[in-house]
Amino acid sequence: MDGILPLYKPKGMTSHDCVFKLRKILRMKKIGHTGTLDPEVDGVLPICLGRATKVAEYITDAGKRYEGEVTIGFSTTTEDATGEVVCQKSVDKIITKKEILRVLEELTGEITQTPPMYSAVKVNGKRLYEYARQGIEVERPSRVVKIYSIELLDEQALYEGETVSFRFRVSCSKGTYIRTLAVMIGEKLGYPAHMSSLTRVQAAAFTLEDCLSFSDVEKLTVEGTIHEVLRPIEMALNDLPKYVISDKLIEKVKNGAILSVPELFKAEKGPIVVTEADGQALAIYQAHPMKEGLMKPTKVLRV
Question: Is pLDDT above 70 for 119?
Answer without folding.
Answer: no
